[in-house]
Amino acid sequence: MKNLFLKKTNKQLQEQRTPFLKKGVMLLFSILMSITGLQAHTPDTPVQTIKVALLLDTSNSMDGLINQAKTQLWEIVNELSYAKASGERPDLKIALYEYGNDGIESNDGYIRQVLDFSSDLDEISEKLFSLSTNGGSEYCGQVIQKSLQELHWKKGHKNDLNIIFIAGNERFTQGHISYKTASKNALKQEVIVNTIFCGNYENGVQGKWKEGALLAGGEYLTIDHNKTIVHLSTPYDVLILRFNKQLNETYIGYGSEGVRKLRMQYVQDKNACSLDEVVEVKRAISKSSNLYKNSSWDLVDAQKEAHFSYEKLDKKTLPKELLGKTTQEIKAYVALKSKERQSIQQKIKDLDRKRRNYIREKTKNSVENDLQTALIRCIKAQAKKQGYTFK
To answer: What is the pTM of this model?
Structure first.
């Protein structure tokens, strides 16, 4: 009886101690996690994203389309920089495909992915300038299907918007993959397909471009791809270009890509200017927006990222003005350039507001029929359905 009593007493004591032991173990584990830096990671909140895939016909007759894309990229970016949903600005990712060019070495219908989804605006510009035209067959269904298979379209946020724009001037029915199949597959993946026929409205309807858009919940658009783009200068352009040069001086290249990316930035400024000085102005405005991010090679942008560490920085890859400097001296220099950049970008934004008002007044009675107008109108309409505003 005595032994039985002792067994029960010990069991009761053990049961009483168990909750305290569990709490103690959890507390000790928490302390150890804190000391060793192994804190449980909470996944980052998904950033809302607008993804746009441009599928451009680069056959012989499409030089005008490619030129419009090069010329008008920056105005499209600038319009999207005003997008906002749930109080946040979205990221913008652009992918680029060319099709219909028999200079492409391909066993799949003269189709090439020029660029996967990227938010690197300099890289997007570089790839557009790399395009050239050549004769070929235009397989619209196949290029749509290929972009659906190769690109990452999965939504991570309720406000995400996935859009394909396919532009060309031949029948939409060519190739061994039906446009009907491709458009329906896009709809299943929650990807809107907008078709842009380069030519007469009725010819595009007969060529099934309108039907292809409707099957994927998109819009059918027509443009004059050979139209000469008239750029409207404003009294604010000279100042914006002056600030753009100052803005470039705030970039601090680092890492294996620093020097190359700084050079790319300079070259894309020149490429924009080669089209027209106003195109360079529009690019400068894009560089002042939230969509122009270069954390992979620029210290000012990089130090804003949560994962960035000055301690892990390879100081040998820094520009000559920072070689041999201490971490504190580097931080101070980056802070100075960051402050300068914010000031310059704000000045460009202020001038852009005046510039936009000036252009709005000058063009209030005009009707444009080009790639830029079609893309902006379409993206805005579809983004508003997804909860975006443009202010």
So the answer is: 0.84
Give just the sign of the alpha carbon dihedral 269, 49, 334, 311: negative
* 171 shares its domain with 57: yes
Statement to judge: residues 214 and 246 lie in one domain: no
Q: CB burial class (10 A; 0-12, 13-18, 19+) of residue 92?
A: buried
Taking only the tens place, the pLDDT of each residue in 242-276 is 999 999 999 999 999 999 999 999 999 999 999 99
Residues 6+ apart with CB under 8 A from 150: 113, 116
Same domain? 241 vs 171: no
- CATH number reported for the structural domain that contains residue 99 in this entry: 3.40.50.410
Among 106, 108, 110, CA closest to 57: 110
Residue pLDDT, tens place only, 330-369: 999 999 999 999 999 999 999 999 999 999 898 887 777 7
> At what angle are helices 327-362 and 237-248 packed, to 10 degrees?
160
Q: Are residues 276 and 349 in the same domain?
A: yes
Does residue 81 sit in the same domain as residue 200?
yes
**Do 163 and 191 contact (CB within 8 A), yes or no?**
yes
Q: Could you list the residue range(s) of the whole structural domain that residue 288 is in? A: 237-362
